[in-house]
Amino acid sequence: MKTLNIGMVGYGFMGRTHSNGYSQANHFFDLEYKPVLKAVCARNKDKAQAFADQWGYESVETDWKELLKRDDIDAIDICTPNNLHAEIAIAAAEAGKMVLCEKPLSMDTAEGIKMCEAIEKAGVKNTVWYNYRRVPAVTLAKQLIDEGRLGKIYHYRANFLQDWTISEDVPQGGAATWRLDADAAGSGVTGDLLAHCIDTALWLNGEISDVSAVTETFVKQRTHAETGEKKEVKIDDACAFHCHFKNGSLGLFESTRYARGHKALYTLEINGQNASIRWDLHDLHRLEYFDHGDDSIVRGWRSVHISDGDQPYMGNWWVPGLNIGYEHTFIHQVADFLKSLETGEPCEPTFRTALETQKVCDAVLSSAQERAWKNV
Ligand code: SOE
Fold first, then answer.
1. Which of 161, 194, 246, 265 could disulfide-pair with 207, CB 3.0 to 4.6 Å?
2. Which of 114, 97, 95, 96 has its CA nearest to residue 106?
3. Does 264 contact ligand 1 (Cβ within 6 A)?
4. Quick check: 104 and 89 in contact, CB under 8 A?
5. ipTM score for this prediction
6. Per-residue pLDDT, 83
């Protein structure tokens, strides 16, 4: 079996989801390549070592530049805050390493373009971890749309709702709350949560032509976790936008971290001329499907339980009736990445594909700022 030696930079929540993916993929998928957890890199050596011990990484680095110099590393996995993605990805590509980058691709489109150019110049394999594409129900939605079952699409609706930043005591910056610090995250819910909704939407429903958005920052000042200083909050706490897709359909998107009661509720609904589909992250193994072509006396919304071997990815898991969960989306992305090494095909979304999401995010943020429609 061929090996793919992984060097991971960062070890937070995403470091765990990715490491689990690397550890599990070959148990369930038949693949020529097998990832080897060669090194994890983080500034704090003790914490990095504890992570390495827990997940089985063979070694630890404290400077990502040293990681890039190592001949025994094939691929760099970037799990850092967003403000480090570009520098590490570009240097990794120049060092001839493959790059797997956590979402969003970059702080903004300009940075994303430089990343794409570096990756393409080096000709290295790459992917961005928009994991929700690989929920079997969402992959099935893509299949149904591509088969033309929905007919002409009229509406695309998506929400991503959370409630973890309502308290004014939540700090900004630091290891756990960098997502609230614009210097580290670039933006708030737009880059963190709507980016997922936009990636899925572009995949399922094609390009967005223009957007009109509103954003709000409800808590205006927060203490910085590291300096203890009270600082202005510069991220968007909430964002809503509507848009036109190039296929003629209308889109409506909303995200907030102030929807009391919702922890991570990603929902989407697509209405076509012949059929509609609906999906909800809290019930992620179900796809709701309404087919107007059904016999009228039994016509209605079906709740399809995605667990059968004929459904995407499910032939690799247990037996029909037994569903899988959130962590499997990362296992699927690892399996697809390893497969792409065998076939030579790209592993979507590539950097170039993820740049399209970045362009929509930028248009959304500038539309909200200028209170004007913006072309993507
Ligand atoms: C934020 O809370 C977060 O962890 C995002 O960063 C992830 O991308 C999303 O999948 C879940 O929520």
1. 246
2. 114
3. yes
4. no
5. 0.98
6. 98
Q: What is the mean pLDDT of residues 36-64?
A: 98
Centre of ligand 1 to C-alpha 344, Å, is 30
Residue 260 CA to ligand 1 center (angstroms) comes to 16
pLDDT for the residue numbered 86: 98
What's residue 258's pLDDT? Answer: 98
Mean predicted confidence (pLDDT) in 162-179: 96
Q: Is the CB of 176 under 6 A from ligand 1?
A: no
As a whole number of angstroms, the distance between CA 209 and CA 201 comes to 13
- How high is the pLDDT of residue 185? 98
Domains and CATH numbers, the chain: 2-132 (3.40.50.720), 134-375 (3.30.360.10)
The size of the chain, in residues, is 376
Q: Count of CB atoms within 10 A of residue 358's CB?
A: 29
Can you name the residues that pair with 9 across neighbouring β-strands?
Answer: 41, 78
Q: How far, in Å, from the CA of 300 to the mean position of ligand 1?
A: 33
DSSP string, 331-366: HHHHHHHHHHHHH----SS-HHHHHHHHHHHHHHHH
pLDDT tier at 272, thresholds 50, 70, 90 = very high
Whether residue 236 has its Cβ less than 6 Å from ligand 1 = no
Provide mean pLDDT across the span 216-220.
98
Residue 192 in contact with ligand 1 by CB distance below 6 A: yes
Q: Tell me what pLDDT residue 315 has.
A: 98
